[in-house]
Amino acid sequence: MSSRSLRLAGLAALVSAAMGLAAQGPVPPTAKQIEHLSIWHGEKVNDPWFWLREKGHPEVVGYLNAENAYTEAVTSGLKPFSEALYKEMLGRIKQTDLSVPTRRGGYYYYSRTEEGKQYPIQCRRKAGKGHAYDEKAPEQVLLDQNELAKGLKYLGVGSFSVSNDDRTLLFSTDTTGFRQYKLFTKDLATGRVTGPLAERVTSVAWAADNRHVFFVTEDDVTKRSNQLWRLDLKAGKPELVFEEKDELYRMDVTRTKDRQFIVVACQSTDTWECRYLAAAQPAGAFKVLLPREKGHKYDVEHREGTFYIRTNKDAKNFRLVTAPVATPDPGHWTSLIPHRADVLLERVDPFQKYLVVAEKRQALSRFRILDFKTGAWKEVAFPESVYAAFPGGTPEFTSKAFRFAYQSMVTPPSVYDCDMATGKQTLLKETEVLGGYDKSQYVTERLWAPARDGVKVPLSVVYKKGVKRDGTAPVFLYAYGSYGIGMAPTFNIPRLSLLDRGVVYVLAHIRGGNEMGEGWHDDGMLMTKMNTFTDFIDSAEFLVKEKWTAKDRLVIEGGSAGGLLMGAVTNLRPDLFKAVHSAVPFVDVMNTMMDASLPLTVGEYLEWGNPNEKAAFDYMRRYSPYDNLQKKAYPSILVTTSYNDSQVMYWEPAKYVAKLRTLKTDSNPLLLRIKMDPAGHGGASGRYDALKDRAFEIAWILDQVGITK
Question: Domain tally for the chain?
Fold first, then answer.
């Protein structure tokens, strides 16, 4: 037994004793402290809870189980409310349902769910005359995830791709929650499954010959997608095609819309590079489209011998240029969409006769369609002032209709086909919300909160009619604010249980995302990261000042990097919030970013900063939640995580809670709820399991503002 293990001996007994019920109720577990010194820029730093990183050690498992037992004991009175919320939420969901079928080649593909089953079933039907959907055609089940999940606590499906000849399915599965996917093939004529062909697969693409596949694998320690492989399904072993050596870059393989090229993208936070290969020549060599150039981000599509390149060269929010395949260098570029300072060009979809671009302006998405024959543009109009719209997947290059998904905070998810010639929209399906949901009884609107530096932060708000603006209503404030990932004002069935109880829900589009363009991300990363936290605080103070709520009625939530947000703002302004739900939170910033062996760390240097550089180290240390916990009063805090989380290791939230227990001077609850069974960064994989977890979280949040039924 190691000296560290010897020093841990007896912790289980300590935890067990701490869990004894005192007269006043459950007593929180106490994590033993063991000196662990690190030298950071010449400074000795002691982290006495560092030992919690020893995954699998009995004493660590014992402590985590004790935290779960404590949470269970403290929240036992919430069980009836949580169960009632679960039934209420489930009662709004059409459990047996069908997605809108989508044509790929000679078949229409769709997924369906069955009442009582945790997972969807992937199916297809052969297309009828003229490629029409024939609902009478026999259904073929491609993948029944419920069958795959038998005997498992967790099942995630990653890749799902059918060959050009419609005969073979390429798919990957994860059974641990650690996003560790194994690759398989399924013969769709015989049903025979072969594999695993490879492990740790993160993306796949078929070649045009229906025989060769390309796939990317991740490093087994850092989880960085770094190797491209070519596999001849009839010949045997995979062949390594390319390895990305630079630890700042990750890799992804795709195929162009017209299926003419395989594209491998190597991307860091600020620099992108693409390689391409004709899909009909899978044994050939990949070519670099444009050599990587620091600060240049670009991606590529193809149509009729022309590359369509979305580039940020001399264009912060991207512009679109075209170039001949033979000469794609900037000297041969032709501008198609110029740069606009107030519009972010997010995506390009070229079809045989049309081009669809997805853009973002004022924290709202929009689509525009170009008719190649006439040169005319038309914009897709939406009926609400605050909404979310996404390309809905139109795989056929020859399609005359563009499919998109539309929703808002009051409008359930809807699927439309837009005729690209006329602009006419056809509603194919609106998700049915059971129980008599009436969207006219709810209001969604856009507010603008003033930040301390004069910037206006967009807020998307939804509430039920009748809510009073006198400071008495509870507000549920959510945000993310990292990686240039914008948060869309989408519909959410569990949220209705908040709105129907008088809670106002607010989504803050703080800096660090891309809602207001690429500059919005730049102003919330690296040495401007503090803007993310102050934007959130300023948004909260604005809601209080405008009498949407009061400090003792304000609850907040964020997950992952949004959990970092929760930890930072709670340290900065613990007086401003009544309760905090911090999900899978990235809170131990300094320990994680100083350890290059941990998954994802080095690639994150360009987002957060490289702490090996003193200036970056000092700046990050200013906001790292774990490093800035102090002896003072904190709001009620619920921290949730998974033991097998691959993105934010379980020990970050565990250490955070353990340390905070020694410092908080208040009597407010501090709870850690960790899924010890296989689960991932997003929690449980089964839809019923996930809904039960959400019902518990909402029950706890409502209870904090005095709503108990």
Answer: 2
